[in-house]
Amino acid sequence: MIRNSNIFRLFLLLVSLGTSFFAQSANKLDSVRIWAAPESTRLVFDLSQSPDYSYFTLKNPDRLVVDLKKSSSKVDLGKIKNNSKLVKKVRKSTPPEKGTLRLVIDLNKPVKASLFALPPTAPYGNRLVVDLDSGGAKAKQPAISKPKATTKLRDVVIAIDAGHGGEDPGSIGPTGIYEKKLVLEISKKVAQKINATPGMRAVMTRTGDYFVNLNKRSEIARNSKADLLISIHADAFTSPQPRGASVWVLSMRRANSEIGRWLEQKEKHSELLGGAGEIIQNTDNEQYLAMTLLDMSMDRSMAISHNIAGDVLSNLGRVTKLHKHKPESASFAVLKSPDIPSILVETGFISNPKEERLLSQRDHQNNVANAIHKGVLKYFEQNPPVNSLLASKSSIEHKVRSGESLSVIAQRYQISVSKLKQANNLKSNSIRIGQKLIIPRA
Ligand SMILES: [Zn+2]
């Protein structure tokens, strides 16, 4: 009896060892996320372990087949959220061998696929990233407008960079609001205001909830010949107390404030989260390179950046608390486009419960966007680039839009209502939609 039960126990032990051994060797697909960008789509497979994978494409119809060795899945693939124009659906298929998980991505057109695995980066674990690019459309940057036939004068182009996106939520507020969402909302408002300003045009580095790596962000700005890049963020700190907006410019040295160092670290973490596939270097070596190669244009860009940062900051100070009253500097990679003046606006601290609430309110977002727009407009009106429409005009024309009053327009261009009335020979304060007003230079 005793012997038998011992053998039985041994048997149980072997069985449990066996199953736990198998459980550890088998990779599990835990979830699938699909992030759609205008011309590309990223699929992310969350896995319990680093994947052993292979893939190939098939035609008629277009498919991408991904084999994950020693893997299984309990994900209901029919229930994945999918707003991609490239991906029809993801499904399981008969594997070439037992134990392999074969996933088929049904496509709407041929794509260029690149796959890479990412190590765990909090809050994510092991990931297999599948980047699908439809190409073609890339050559045509919608951002670049056709030159006008009648005149060579150009618009001042402002690249607006909503931080984070897709896999990278950015900071997360105490009630769970994502920075990537707030900053996209604010960025869109800034873009609208820029586009409504004669002589100015906005280009956005992202227009939806997808990740764009730092190189790509400055590439978009450069391709559209941007005069300025504004990166928009809402930050968080380890404690809930810090609050207020701040404006940052590039420094060749490491940040000397605690929050500055924290932000630099977070930028690196963001790239890892978003899955840039490469880590930003911040070595002395790189700084040396930057210093030697970029001297003149960098100096010029940095001087301009400082000026604009000051104008934006003073306008922000009228609508929100300021964290610091002077532009601060840190070594952010997103600001490192030597040829393009760049600023980074922290619209507030999402980790501060009060500011988290404020930043998600439409009115406040509007105020912040207005302040950014005003600061930028002030700078470029006073320092219009040669060949720009702004430089050519001693005055600007403004077409009255719904909801605008004389005082709103006067405020936008930072002139007095009486000056505005005088320039337009207005006897009363009433204006109509579509009316064209001359805005005298401040
Ligand atoms: Zn951020």
UniProtKB/TrEMBL annotation:
Domain LysM positions: 396-439
- Compartments, as annotated in UniProt: Periplasm
**What EC number(s) does its UniProt record assign?**
3.5.1.28
Against Pfam families, the record matches this protein to: Amidase_3, AMIN, LysM
Q: Which PANTHER family does the record associate with it?
A: N-ACETYLMURAMOYL-L-ALANINE AMIDASE, N-ACETYLMURAMOYL-L-ALANINE AMIDASE AMIB
Organism lineage string: Bacteria, Pseudomonadati, Pseudomonadota, Gammaproteobacteria, Alteromonadales
| Record bears the keyword Thylakoid | no
Coiled-coil region: none
Q: Which Gene3D superfamilies match?
A: 2.60.40.3500, LysM domain (3.10.350.10), Zn-dependent exopeptidases (3.40.630.40)
Which first-to-last residue range defines the signal peptide? 1-25
Protein name, per record: N-acetylmuramoyl-L-alanine amidase AmiC
Amino-acid biosynthesis as UniProt keyword:
no
